[in-house]
Specification:
The complex is a heterodimer of chains A (219) and B (120).
Chain A (H helix, E strand, L loop, with lengths): L1 H20 L4 H11 L2 H12 L4 H11 L2 H13 L4 H9 L3 H12 L4 H29 L12 H10 L6 H16 L7 H26 L1
Chain B lengths: L2 H25 L8 H7 L2 H15 L3 H6 L5 H22 L2 H22 L1
The chains are: A mainly alpha (219), B mainly alpha (120).
Chain lengths: 219, 120
């Protein structure tokens, strides 16, 4: 978890810089990072807010970008079933991309689910605190970082580290290529709607490829 | 709507939706089976959504570079990011780690940026 934390530092700083650039007060910036606790949603929110997009569009875009949490939740559900409801509710709040990736690897190794859950909780809380610290650092001190460093490039790189392990499956590559081409081809759409449309097209393409693979396998 | 009020409305709604998504299957659907077609589609959500997020961030030239380089040289403006992304993908494929991916991507991006700066 520690290297994952360090890797997220520039991401958190970029989120803080974005909130400051969008004209947020420090406590609304902190509210955004503490409550929403999702770098992708935070970046989209401050970008769309700065571009004057209506609240409904911001909410819809963040919701569609956050659909991956449904998938994480479904994957974690069987692993967390032995735990009490209160623990499940607490752990769900901490279920970010990075914690999910680390938790699944940990639960995969088997052993005591309660020990794995304690590890999940510990790393989740540590990541949450670290995230608030880096967001605030970006908000207050982000302007000290020279633009020539292109620190914002750290954001797609963090997502690259998450998405590339998915590419072990050929159908996931199909989903990614369709989404990637579509998001560029539809860049003319207003208010980042290309993200929602391209993401949906990618999911459909991956699912269709999966069905075709399954059919070929069944024959 | 006043921007601060708008931001707080977004924080509350997106925060609630995010939490509901994270909790959904862990709490509400834990005892039910996910319908097979839905489970199939779920598998491709991260690959599609994350790629749709990543690609524009790589293809968009940073503002500073876009100002410095005329539009005819748009390629020179995005080349450092494309090279950095390619290096990051290669490292992420081998290591699965955020930190090595970040170091490779930023490193190659800076090197290509410096080379283009020296040539131009």
């Amino acid at each position: 978890m520690v290297p994952a934390c360090l890797g997220l530092a520039p991401f958190g700083v970029v989120c803080g810089v974005g909130a400051a650039a969008a004209g947020a007060s420090w406590w609304s910036a902190l509210g955004l990072s503490a409550i929403v606790f999702s770098g992708a949603a935070q970046i989209l929110t401050v970008e769309l807010l700065a571009a004057g997009a209506p609240v409904a569009v911001i909410v819809l875009t963040c919701f569609v970008a956050g659909l991956r949490f449904l998938m994480y939740s479904a994957a974690m559900a069987p692993l967390l079933r032995p735990l009490p409801a209160r623990a499940q509710q607490g752990l769900a709040f901490l279920l970010t991309d990075q914690v999910f990736a680390a938790a699944v690897r940990r639960f995969d190794r088997g052993g005591d689910p309660h020990a794995a859950a304690r590890h999940f909780f510990g790393s989740g809380v540590a990541l949450w605190l670290f995230w608030q610290a880096t967001n605030l650092a970006g908000f207050f001190a982000g302007n000290l970082i020279p633009a020539s460093w292109s620190l914002d490039f750290a954001v797609p790189l963090c997502f690259v580290a998450l998405v590339v392990p998915q590419f072990r499956s050929r159908n996931a590559i199909v989903a990614a290529v369709v989404a990637g081409v579509a998001v560029l081809a539809l860049a003319w759409l207003p208010m980042r709607l290309n993200l929602i449309v391209a993401g949906t097209l990618g999911i459909v393409a991956g699912t269709v490829a999966d069905l075709a693979t399954a059919r070929r396998g069944a024959r | 709507m006043d921007p601060t009020a708008a931001l707080w409305v977004v924080i509350v709604i997106v925060g609630a939706l995010n939490y509901a998504s994270r909790l959904s299957f862990i709490a509400f659907f834990a005892r039910r089976r996910i319908p097979a077609p839905l489970a199939r589609a779920f598998r491709y959500v991260p690959a599609a959504m994350l790629t749709a997020l990543i690609v524009p961030m790589i293809a968009a030239a940073p503002h500073a570079a876009a100002d410095a380089v005329p539009s005819a040289h748009a390629l020179a403006a995005i080349a450092p990011r494309v090279a950095g992304a390619a290096a990051a993908i290669a490292v992420a494929w081998r290591t699965h780690g955020t930190l090595p991916t970040l170091v490779a991507g930023m490193g190659v991006m800076w090197i290509v940026q410096a080379i283009i700066g020296a040539v131009a």
